[in-house]
Specification:
Blueprint (H helix, E strand, L loop, with lengths): L1 H17 L16 E4 L7 H10 L4 E3 L5 H11 L8 E4 L2 E4 L1 H12 L11 H30 L11 H12 L12 H15 L9 H11 L2 H10 L24
Parallel strand pairs: 1-2
Antiparallel strand pairs: 1-3, 3-4
Helix pairs in contact: 2-9, 5-6, 5-7, 6-8
Length: 256
């Protein structure tokens, strides 16, 4: 009898070790606590307001209209260790980082929304752009802007600079309608801020990127985007940064 039980146990163990793992997708939304977005007008916190409008989820929006200093004071009161916009409270949790906030809200409270199917070809590209927006694009665009405000550019780097980053996005949109691939996704929400920053502040020549301009027009026509603007930017941009007087001329890049 012992030998029979041992053989059965061994067979079960072998089956566990050889059978392919089946991914378990979360399809049931968790109960959602109160979500509060601490906001600065015209800044990255717009992404979270826009997300909630796209998902039709309830939220509380906290900022002082037209007063960035008072809005920042409200953020500092909630998140003194890292007072940044967005700061979002989800129940008792205090969250920062746009991408992390977006993924937390979608995965917990709107599973499957604004995200390509896990097994689709679009999923990995969507995820790349979710992270590329801040990890590569925003960092280079903002660095170029700060340096060039001090020392106006005469030429561009032959390595990867802000223009190369924007061109990378342009090339992707030449083959796909959205940064999520075939459908609008949270990746598009992430990409708007750094591309607007690059073009509005003359870091790149916006006339050279027709695919991005067409994508921006589609974005700005979305009802949820319009609702975000009405709620989060009621008076337009507050505390505008000055545009560069001239953007650096384009130059050859490796392989060109």
């Amino acid at each position: 009898m012992k030998h029979i039980l041992a053989a059965a146990a061994f067979a079960a163990l072998a089956a566990c070790n050889t059978a392919p793992a089946t991914p378990v997708a979360t399809t049931i939304a968790m109960p959602m606590p109160e979500i509060t977005i601490y906001h600065l007008e015209g800044r990255r916190s717009e992404r979270i307001v826009w997300l909630m409008e796209e998902l039709n989820l309830p939220y509380k929006l906290v900022f002082t209209r037209g007063d960035l200093a008072k809005s920042m004071a409200a953020i500092r009161a909630v998140n003194p260790g890292m007072p940044v916009a967005p700061t979002v409270t989800v129940g008792a949790e205090v969250l920062t980082e746009s991408g992390a906030i977006i993924e937390t809200i979608i995965n917990r409270y709107a599973p499957g929304k604004l995200t390509p199917a896990l097994a689709s070809a679009d999923y990995s590209q969507h995820l790349i752009w979710m992270h590329h927006a801040e990890g590569s694009l925003a960092s280079r665009v903002i660095a170029d802007y700060r340096v060039w405000m001090i020392n106006p550019p005469k030429e561009r780097s032959r390595l990867v600079d802000s223009e190369a980053e924007v061109q990378f996005a342009e090339d992707y949109l030449a083959k796909h309608p959205w940064f999520g691939g075939a459908e609008f996704s949270a990746a598009d929400i992430m990409m708007v801020f750094p591309l607007n920053f690059a073009m509005a502040l003359n870091i790149v020549d916006k006339t050279r990127f027709p695919k991005i301009n067409a994508w921006k027009a589609k974005i700005e026509a979305r009802p949820a985007y319009q609702r975000m603007l009405a709620k989060a930017r009621p008076d337009g941009m507050v505390g505008n940064l000055p545009a560069l007087p001239v953007h650096a001329p384009s130059g050859p890049r490796p392989g060109q």
